[in-house]
Structures are given as structure tokens and as C-alpha cells.
Design a protein that fits this description.
The protein is α+β, with helices and mostly antiparallel strands and about 120 residues long. The chain is about 20% helix and about 20% strand. It has 2 helices and 6 strands, in the order E-H-E-E-E-H-E-E. The strands form 2 sheets. Strands 1-4-3-2 form a 4-stranded mixed sheet, with helices on one face. A two-stranded antiparallel sheet has the order 5-6.
Length: about 120
């Protein structure tokens, strides 16, 4: 299920314009694109990093590792069968479906599986 999936990282920012300026110009060397209020950094090597808006952003309160998949529902079912409980969000921009799927600007090659906690 995840053998052919390329992982990508993400983190939040409370100032999209400042993040775009820093990574695109100040830090430099990265292609920075913007879509649906989120930034995507494209460092050399083919990986991507998503920067999503979060008004109460605090650096490094947690980290995530994302795996784009072709069939999000099948991936969620596979994780659930392995005893991984996915977090459900009922309202706001992070609202998820009953299966814990959340839409994202990055639809290719897959969608996002929200943070998971192991029930084992």
C-alpha cells in the first residue's frame, strides 16, 4: 500500500506571506507555489513540503509524515485494520469525513490522511 508512495512533510505558519518570502527569497533555492491558502516548497530531490495556515502556530508542537496514496479510502481502511485510530475533526477547515479523510490542495498523487494515533 505505501511501498510506492513518496512521503512529504508539512508544517504550519501563522504568516503565509512571511513564509513565502523567507523560503522563496530570503532562504532561497526553493520553488514556492501557492494554492488554496497553502504553500508548497519544492526542494531539490523531488520531495515537497506543505506549509498550511494555522493562526495559533507554535513551532514544533508536533510533526507529521505524509504519504500520498492513489486510493485514500483503501489506505484508511488498511490503517484501521492494523489497529490505527484516526482522529476525526467535526468542524472548521480541517473537517474530515466519517472515514477521517480531509481534502487538500495537493490532490496528486493522493489525498491526506489526518494524524493517527495507535490504539495498540
Amino acid at each position: 500500500m505505501f511501498a510506492d508512495s513518496q512521503a512529504f512533510s508539512d508544517f504550519s505558519s501563522n504568516d503565509r506571506r512571511a513564509a513565502k518570502e523567507f523560503y522563496g527569497k530570503t532562504r532561497g533555492g526553493l520553488e514556492v507555489t501557492e494554492e488554496n491558502g497553502m504553500l508548497t516548497l519544492k526542494p531539490e530531490g523531488g520531495q515537497t513540503v506543505l506549509i498550511y495556515p494555522k493562526d495559533d502556530h507554535q513551532a514544533a508542537t508536533y510533526t507529521t509524515l505524509n504519504f500520498p496514496v492513489k486510493e485514500i479510502e483503501a489506505a484508511v481502511d488498511g490503517l484501521t485494520q492494523r489497529g490505527i485510530a484516526l482522529k476525526h475533526y467535526g468542524e472548521g477547515r480541517a473537517r474530515t469525513s466519517a472515514q477521517s479523510c480531509a481534502p487538500m490542495a495537493r490532490r496528486s498523487p493522493g489525498s491526506r490522511i489526518p494524524p493517527a494515533t495507535s490504539s495498540r
